[in-house]
């Protein structure tokens, strides 16, 4: 079916999972997992994934959009963790209806200024704009910052000053965790939910156990970002296949189980957060 606007999925009153696309197999797995779970999902492409594709947004965006429109699931395209303003300005032309503009490395005042400008630009194009306050940490090149938390009063002021449509908050999760051992600060989630008038986004959800994630969703965490869990499934399946079949040369042989493993992971997250 045609691409859905991210705003429609986020404001439908249920939690929505957003999965990171790196290869076409990721996109296919996300679409298949959404179909299997009979749930909508967001396909998101990060600035780092665009860098992996030679800095060109067009080809991977076009492939992802084609996979999404060929699916029977309700899917949207989101551009994730954009720091480069020239990439931000390509989003609309490539079918993205939402973008996460990440100025979280900047001091507070500079973050507000840059994000307000990004939000203004996005809103002129009917786009939905997410930003981050308090560093979630753990992205490639980041210092590990597990102790950082978003302050509720500062978050409320930030949303008012930037006019963003959703806010990524630091409540105990960290990007790129390969074990699901994160403990979330549930009282902080509740305080943020009370203080902030827009949907809250949890980054680094791959490292959060099921029970913690369901509690976070119940407490009002709306967008659940999942990347590493797919890559763990993908790489684990490739590794197992190649260990068992060391003479294989046809990539379809190992990408088939890798894609199937990601599909199962996607469906699992979609079912588990359906509370
Ligand atoms: Zn993130």
TrEMBL record:
* Protein name as it appears in the record: Fructose-bisphosphate aldolase
Q: Which InterPro entries match?
A: Aldolase_TIM, Class_II_FBP_aldolase, FBA_II
Q: Tell me its cofactors.
A: Zn(2+)
Q: Name one Pfam family in it.
A: F_bP_aldolase
Q: Which PANTHER family did the record assign? A: D-TAGATOSE-1,6-BISPHOSPHATE ALDOLASE, D-TAGATOSE-1,6-BISPHOSPHATE ALDOLASE SUBUNIT GATY-RELATED
Kindly give the Gene3D superfamilies that the UniProt entry links to this protein.
Answer: Aldolase class I
């Amino acid at each position: 079916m045609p691409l859905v606007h991210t705003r429609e999925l986020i404001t439908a009153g249920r939690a929505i999972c957003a999965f990171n696309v790196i290869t076409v197999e990721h996109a296919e797995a996300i679409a298949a997992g959404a179909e299997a779970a009979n749930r909508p999902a967001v396909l998101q492409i990060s600035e780092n994934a665009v860098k992996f594709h030679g800095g060109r947004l067009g080809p991977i965006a076009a492939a992802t959009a084609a996979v999404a429109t060929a699916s029977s699931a309700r899917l949207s395209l989101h551009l994730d963790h954009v720091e480069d303003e020239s990439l931000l300005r390509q989003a609309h032309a490539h079918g993205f209806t939402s973008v996460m503009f990440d100025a979280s490395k900047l001091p507070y005042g500079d973050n507000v200024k840059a994000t307000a400008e990004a939000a203004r630009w996005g809103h002129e194009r009917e786009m939905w704009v997410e930003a981050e306050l308090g560093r979630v940490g753990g992205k490639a090149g980041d210092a590990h910052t597990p102790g950082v938390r978003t302050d509720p009063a500062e978050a409320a002021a930030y949303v008012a000053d930037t006019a963003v449509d959703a806010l990524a908050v630091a409540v105990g999760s960290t990007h790129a965790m390969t074990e699901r051992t994160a403990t979330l600060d549930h009282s902080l989630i509740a305080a943020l939910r009370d203080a902030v008038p827009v949907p809250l986004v949890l980054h680094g959800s791959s490292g959060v156990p099921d029970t913690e994630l369901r509690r976070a969703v119940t407490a009002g965490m709306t967008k659940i970002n999942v990347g590493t869990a797919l890559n763990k499934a993908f790489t684990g399946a490739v590794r197992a296949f190649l260990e068992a079949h060391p003479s294989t040369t046809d990539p379809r042989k190992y990408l088939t189980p890798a894609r199937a493993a990601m599909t199962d992971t996607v469906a699992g997250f979609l079912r588990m957060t359906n509370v």
